[in-house]
């Protein structure tokens, strides 16, 4: 069952898949909507500009039937005259043509949007596969297209039938109507029939456009395995990313351990935490943390410190405060200046004792750590209860 669900296309298309489809020239399109939009634009254009265009064409026709005798025998004059008449015809229909051009360019914005893809122009030999063509002929989409064609024919036929039968008397009377009146009546009849038929096409377009959007989304659906594979390709394999993060942590740990021998002192918890401090007078505003760690990392810091004769000082409260409130490379908090100053004073005295002898200095005891910085202090637990349990080790 799990394998079947993984192979079933039940997941919506990802943004990457949609973008890839657009790059290949695959976007939702509704031919019925485009056709209906163009016909409506043509009808509106004829309604507003048809009368003016008709007057211009009539005038051009009348002027074309009369010409000078000289033009009949001079080919150049005849060509120039006809070129002028053709330009006048084009100018008469220019508003309608401009409207149709604008609508043709803007209609893709209704569904799918503008798309310029060079891949769509490249030859695709899969489309020349006769077996695939036969399968497409009996596919669900082909049956839907057949149903749409039949439905469009029925709707247009029924609408045209009612539009024409309702004007039978007007059509019969055209035979005895004067030319001017008959021409106007015929124009209104044709225009009313055109609007009725286009109205039927509007109904088809309102059904087809949502269907095309749904069909496009359904066609690009993905299986769960495809979603997982795409996530791996986009974000990288989780196992590889985990290994990279582990290697990065190891490199950071090695760099940190390399700083331990340069530290002045390592403050310990004594076993769970270890924080290495370094201070260079005149170069640092305050002592800095060059290494810190817990449990195994703390043990490694103590081991390296011992090998390099870096002093170890047990100060549990101070170690907890330094571990909890500093990051690598940070200067210690101002509230810990006094306690760390006592520690460094002890370290410098210990160095002097090791070099010159004398009385061995005593380790500082009772270092004052502000209660709000010590995770074991009740005041700290009240302020930050989530960290108290971990730091209590």
What does this structure look like?
By secondary structure, the chain is of the alpha+beta class. Helix content is 65%, strand content 6%. The protein has 16 helices and 6 strands. It has helices at residues 2-7, 15-23, 31-64, 69-73, 75-106, 130-137, 140-165, 168-173, 179-219, 224-235, 238-259, 296-307, 316-325, 337-356, 378-383, 385-391, and strands spanning 9-11, 222-223, 265-268, 273-278, 288-294, 312-314. Helix 3 (31-64) runs antiparallel to helix 5 (75-106), helix 3 runs antiparallel to helix 9 (179-219) and helix 7 packs antiparallel against helix 9.
Radius of gyration: 44 Å
Number of helices: 16
Shape: elongated
| Largest sheet, spatial ordering of strands | 5-4-3-6
- Name the helicity range: 55-70%
Mean pLDDT: 78
Low-confidence stretches: 385-393
Structural class determined from secondary elements: alpha+beta
| Topology as a string of helices (H) and strands (E) | HEHHHHHHHHEHHEEEHEHHHH
User: Distance N terminus to C terminus?
Assistant: 48 Å
Quick one: how many beta strands?
Answer: 6
Percent of residues in beta strands? 5-15%
| Biggest sheet architecture | 4 strands, mixed
How would the blueprint of this fold be written?
Layout: H1 2-7, E1 9-11, H2 15-23, H3 31-64, H4 69-73, H5 75-106, H6 130-137, H7 140-165, H8 168-173, H9 179-219, E2 222-223, H10 224-235, H11 238-259, E3 265-268, E4 273-278, E5 288-294, H12 296-307, E6 312-314, H13 316-325, H14 337-356, H15 378-383, H16 385-391
Parallel strand pairs: 3-6
Antiparallel strand pairs: 1-2, 3-4, 4-5
Helix pairs in contact: 3-5, 3-9, 7-9
